[in-house]
Amino acid sequence: MAEKKTKPTPKPRVAMREQPAIERVGNFSEVALGYTREQAMAEAARCLQCKKPACVKGCPVEINIPGFITRLAEGDVRGAYGILRETNSLPAVCGRVCPQEVQCEGACILGQMTDKASGEKLEPVAIGRLERFAADTFAAESACDELTGKPVCAMPRDGLKVACIGSGPSSLTVAGYLSALGVQVTIFEALHEPGGVLVYGIPEFRLPKATVGREIDALRAQGVEIRCNWVGGKTVAVRDLLNDGYQAVFIGVGAGLPKFLGVPGESLVGVYSANEYLTRVNLGRAYDYPAYDTPVTRGKHVAVIGGGNVAMDAARTALRLGAERVSIVYRRTREEMPARREEIHHALEEGVHLEMLCNPTAYVGDGKHRLAALRLQRMCLGAPDASGRCRPEAIPGDVFELPCDQAILAVGTGSNRVLLQDTPEVTLNKWGYIVVDEETGETSLPGVYAGGDIVTGAATVILAMGAGRRAAKAIAHKLGLQ
After folding, report:
1. Which domain range does residue 332 map to?
2. What pLDDT is attached to residue 390?
3. Does some domain include residue 144?
4. How far apart are the first and last CA of the chain?
5. How far is 12 from 244, CA to CA, in rounded Å?
6. C-alpha dihedral sign at 419, 424, 427, 431
7. Within 10 A of 217 (CB to CB), how many other CB atoms are there?
8. Is 304 within a domain?
9. What are phi and psi of 260, to 5 degrees?
10. Are 225 and 161 in the same domain?
11. pLDDT of 429-464, one tens digit each?
């Protein structure tokens, strides 16, 4: 009788190289160093090549994940990159900043299996790291090869043109999708540099500006025109674009209006919104002052209020700017923090302190209009609220002060009304975000579409790209291209 063959247990996930914490806290260079070719091929070989790949369903832009991983396992980087670009205009970006652990990797079948010998749960395939490797390696190899470095473009279709307002991930996705079909796409960006949150919000040590620039250059090479210093609602209006012959307009202006707590002392010198702080440091390159003439206050004792990725970015930035102590203040516990686990891990490695179950009630001044401390109310977790998370409740009488000369608020953002006030035909919800058809992204104004944070509120890069892809498909259908 033939012996029953058993499948070998997949090998452990291949670790990715990183700068040591003691070194990286003193520079703004990228923390994660990526895979070598051998490491990428070994990690790709872990993929089970499922007949019904749950990872694809977990991807907002519908990447053929088993397909590109198969190519990498074979050593075919160019083939892998080609598959990625079929649905994703920004693979090098997504491979770095997407929350893969709750999307494609969270759905990976391998990650739901256990090691028969140890009984320990296996780690999913490192899809994001492989995506990053494919994009970076293709770019490096193509830099020496003009022919393979140029994208394959469709023949321009006379008379078809679409405008995008804002140059963040949703607009870049729309532009990539439609330009590949031969549509002339023009992006209007309010700032002096394109990329939206990718350049003003995410620090260099997580997402290098050169990486973003490379992805945007690929879109330009595909025929996309980008006009900077055009402010939606001021120097460019939706109605004017439609009257000028654009068959569709996509609004992807994000949600960059900072929120504040409204507690006493908020006007003291030393209190920043994370939006202003990170924009100065990232887009303004304040970390490289005086080479770039954008100064920023460098606090010695910094308190960052919030528990998301933006809070982690601000805290880790403050450390790199020379802060002696940085504390993250959050009203729930570490387990409830919405930031990526990897970002929390990196922050703690670098020396960031956590002040959990604390809620700010006032900023305390030094008598000279400067911040001296943050007054905090101790909290405990009560019954779950409407979101399903336990509601923070104050512990009566338990108040203390955290000395600090700089406080950075990372408690969310709202919609910027400059463009929206100029376009009253576009319906907004009670929070001031644009209401769209969930399937197409079309607004109440025919021919005008929207996606990303201006529709959902502050979310992730990949969700904004998913919204852009849905809108691009709908626009292509309207133009008779699909």
Report:
1. 258-413
2. 86
3. no
4. 56
5. 57
6. positive
7. 11
8. yes
9. -120, 170
10. yes
11. 999 999 999 999 999 999 999 999 999 998 899 999
